[in-house]
Amino acid sequence: MFLKKLLLRNFRNYSSHQVDFSPAINVICGSNGVGKTNLIEAIYLLSTGRSFRSINLKDLIKDKASFFYLEAEIVIKDISHTIKIYFDGKNKKIHLNSNEIPSFTSLLGTLCSSLITSDDFNLINGKPQIRRNFLNMHLAQETPLYVHHYLRFMKALKQRNYLLKSNKHHLLKVFDLELCKSGSFLIHRRNQFIDSLQDPLNFFLNTLFKLETNAKIKYFSTVNPSLSQEEIYQHYLEELQKNKKKESDFKTTLVGPHRDDFNIMFNKKSAKQFASEGQKKLLLFSLKFAQWQLLSNFLEQKALFLIDDFDAHLDELHKNNLKKALDNLSQVFITLPKMNEKFENANIIPINN
User: Fold this and answer.
1) So what CATH class is 113-302?
2) What string of DSSP letters covers 47-90?
3) Cβ partners under 8 Å of residue 273, min gap 6
4) CA distance 246 to 289
């Protein structure tokens, strides 16, 4: 999997700009405000259908322009493909090769990636929603079926909450069944993913950062996640029945994957509460490397790895260890405020806008 070329028009601060990338390490450097992160953002949009900086696509249109346009040439298993994205503030058009596709969801799995930004430290420190987003984005890149169940679950949840607020409890049953059908799939797949992260997480902690410790990662759900999918379905139904009175009082759905979370234990203590800031950085990088490894294994080809603002994250020792590890990945994109880091055989992309 290789992003060969990227064309941007009216995207963020770029009027028109084309970049050719190396299949190995690409270092995007320049002073603050010139658009380094904008390039990473464009790549992530092509990969996932969303920006990591804004939920509103209008924010990506250059000031005083009426649209943005992205075009990428990618190579997958020695075959070239083209992705085109156009958005004018109201309408979007997405093409994969010569075919127009209905939504960004249809792009998922085409150009897969793992991303690290300074905001990702909230993955350990922040609210459960941030960790659920991490799970959702990984699993959505693995299989369209996860996206299908996630969208069905969220639609049923919205309708069920409306009925709870409207005191129309006699209509809940049909939505209970829909919640349990799709919700059991989400819980089961998330728990499988968390279990599969355990070994590679510790591998990267031990080999990349030389930490002789065992981190433990565990999924927490309002429904027992360690059961089979069929058993989760039944347990979920039972929990909804048990919580009927409580949900009636609170007028919202209290049970399901929309309430779930995961926790990382470091030195037998919660990383969120007890790990130092330095330890949290190492945990985050190891977690993202582990996620990248699982995604690449699933795809049977190496996914992209994106790091925004490399300077901001690690001390010199761990930075050097990380640089060596990047050589073993496939295509890597890194932003730097100035070219004060050495990367062997890297493609240097200076930005001077």
Assistant:
1) mainly alpha
2) HHSS-SS-S-GGGGBPTT-S-EEEEEEEEETTEEEEEEEEE-SS
3) none
4) 41
Any idea where the domains of the chain sit in the sequence? 1-110+349-353, 113-302
What are the Cα distances from residue 70, in Å, to 10, 44, 45, 115?
9, 12, 9, 19
CATH annotation of 1-110+349-353: 3.40.50.300
Q: What is the pLDDT of residues 221-253, one digit of tens each?
A: 999 999 999 999 999 999 999 999 999 999 999
Helix (H) or strand (E) holding 105: none
What pLDDT is stored for residue 313 in this prediction?
64
Give tens-digit pLDDT for 114-156: 999 988 889 999 999 999 999 999 999 998 899 999 999 999 9
What token pair was written down for 320? 């050097």
pLDDT digit string, tens, across residues 200-213: 999 998 888 777 77
